[in-house]
Write a structure and sequence with these properties.
By secondary structure, the chain is an alpha/beta fold. It folds into two domains: 207 residues, 3-Layer(aba) Sandwich (Rossmann fold), CATH 3.40.50.300; 158 residues, P-loop containing nucleotide triphosphate hydrolases (Rossmann fold). Helices cover 33% and strands 16% of the residues. The strands form four sheets. The protein has a seven-stranded parallel sheet, with helices on both faces. The radius of gyration is 22 Å and the shape is globular. The structure holds adenosine monophosphate. Adenosine monophosphate binds next to helix 3.
Length: 472
């Protein structure tokens, strides 16, 4: 499919797409839309940034348009479950945007962190589309403000994140309330065993579609690691912010408390930053995100979970103030830069306790991340694979996630390059390709693709060096 006109979508939807300036379907859209329009159940292996929201929203809107009927009181015809408030909000906005020429089209949001009464009122007469996080949805069901027996189409978005966030039981409860004759569209970036099991229980003869993100994405991210003492991180961050030419900077910390501490530290030296994490109210989070998106806020501090689902183009730098203990999180984090066809810089601070995390990450991405800066002296001596967790507790077995991703599909991350260009003034000399000597370790195994980054490495090749230059 090379054009949205080829799908047979209704005219009001095509008109909205033209206004959105969508010309070419992304690979996940090209694969999913025809199947969904035939009422097939679909498992889509794709993550945010591939255009997957439109991949499910467009055929759903088409269904609502062609089979018009009044939703029953307190009911929804389409239920979309998503793990975070932010992602839910973005999905609801997408439905409203693509369905802006359809009448009637009521889209309601059921998310935590905001008063429930408005949502109760919003559902009173029934809606076409309800986008919900699982916890709040169950609250509404328990209050008898929502009934789920009329759902014709269920979408489960970011299923693997639902698992990470402990929502799987809530999802099972919700699914048990739905009628069996329904269509289910199931999306996940990775397919760990538990997610495969859940899909097997929820879907009927599903078609599988998968997109392999662009193999070149990782090449466009210049990755660096700076070894430092833990106590040196606050001043190191300030140094990096002063010396780098930054546009929008996303700083990751492992904990909420850590995020607030970084904000306070920066404020003392005149840098304005804000944090987004689970302890912030929905209003605060929305305001901070809007400021970051508009460019009013240049430095955003986030925890992994809070950052999930944030779709902001033009992030010039991702800074890992703390290294994540789950290697996949590293890839999700650095994929926040290099979005929409742009490239970016990822700088990781690594203290002595985090050496094992760094080795896990390098092993997974099969690259040596160049160490830069005078703090190199602290680089821990290499250890062998035995000590994967550096003596720390394994976080609930999550390290096993993410290896089983399918990927036979379209290629390309599906984001047309017109979408979100940004200038790179000041990144002079960056792609000098001055690779450091690669590790001569042979690696084996299949390509790994996590986040919007694919790691291709033939067995027996030396590890590539991540990043294009090593600043000394
Ligand atoms: P998603 O993966 O659904 O979060 O979409 C990522 C971004 O790509 C969103 O900003 C969409 O508006 C945009 N997008 C999705 N599909 C297309 C398309 N076919 N052409 C241009 N932009 C698109």
């Amino acid at each position: 499919m090379t054009s949205f006109n080829d799908f047979g979508l209704a005219e009001p939807i095509l008109r909205a797409l033209a206004e959105e300036k969508y010309v070419t379907p992304t690979p996940i859209q090209a694969q999913t839309i025809p199947l969904a329009m035939q009422s097939r159940d679909v498992i889509g292996i794709a993550q945010t940034g591939t255009g997957k929201t439109a991949a499910f929203a467009l055929p759903i809107l088409n269904h609502l348009y062609t089979k018009r009927m009044r939703p029953e009181k307190k009911s929804c015809r389409v239920l979309v479950l998503s793990p975070t408030r932010e992602l839910s909000g973005q999905i609801a906005d997408s439905f409203r945007a693509y369905g802006r020429h359809m009448r009637p089209l009521a889209v309601e949001l059921a998310i935590g962190g905001v008063p429930i009464n408005r949502q109760v009122r919003g559902m009173a007469h029934g809606v076409e589309v309800l986008v919900a996080t699982p916890g709040r949805l169950l609250d509404l069901v328990n209050q008898r403000a929502v009934r789920l027996d009329q759902v014709e189409i269920l979408v489960l978005d970011e299923a693997d994140r639902m698992l990470d966030m402990g929502f799987i039981n809530d999802i099972r409860k919700v699914v048990a309330m739905l009628r069996k004759e329904r269509q289910t569209l199931f999306f996940s970036a990775t397919m760990p065993q538990e997610i495969t099991r859940l899909a097997d229980q929820m879907l009927r003869d599903p078609a599988r579609v998968a997109v392999t993100p662009q193999a070149t994405t990782v090449e466009r991210i210049q990755q660096r690691v700076i070894h430092t003492e833990k106590s040196g991180k606050p001043s190191l961050l300030i140094e990096v912010l002063k010396t780098e030419t930054t546009d929008r900077v996303l700083v990751f910390t492992r904990t909420k408390h850590g995020a607030d501490k970084v904000v306070r530290g920066l404020e003392k030296t005149g840098f304005f930053a804000e944090a987004i994490h689970g302890n912030k109210s929905q209003n605060q989070r929305e305001r901070v995100l809007a400021d970051f998106r508009s460019g009013k806020l240049r430095i955003l501090i986030a925890t992994d979970i809070a950052a999930r689902g944030i779709d902001v183009d033009g992030v010039s730098h991702v800074i890992n103030y703390d290294l994540p203990n789950i290697p996949e999180s590293y890839v999700h984090r650095i994929g926040r830069t290099a979005r929409a066809g742009a490239d970016g810089i990822a700088i990781s601070f690594c203290d002595q306790e985090e050496g094992a995390f760094l080795r896990d990450i390098e092993r997974m991405i099969r690259m040596t991340i160049p160490a830069t800066g005078e703090r190199q002296a602290h680089r821990p001596a290499p250890q062998n694979a035995g000590n994967r967790n550096g003596g720390r507790q394994n976080s609930g077995g999550r390290n096993q996630r993410g290896n089983s991703r399918g990927g036979n599909g379209g290629g390309g991350n599906g984001r047309p390059s017109h979408n979100g260009n940004r200038s790179h003034a000041g990144h002079q000399g960056r792609p000098s390709h001055a690779h450091q000597a690669p590790h001569q370790e042979a690696t084996t195994g299949e390509p790994r693709d996590i986040g919007n980054v694919t790691f291709l490495q033939r067995s027996g090749e030396p590890r590539r060096n991540a990043g294009h230059q090593a600043k000394s």
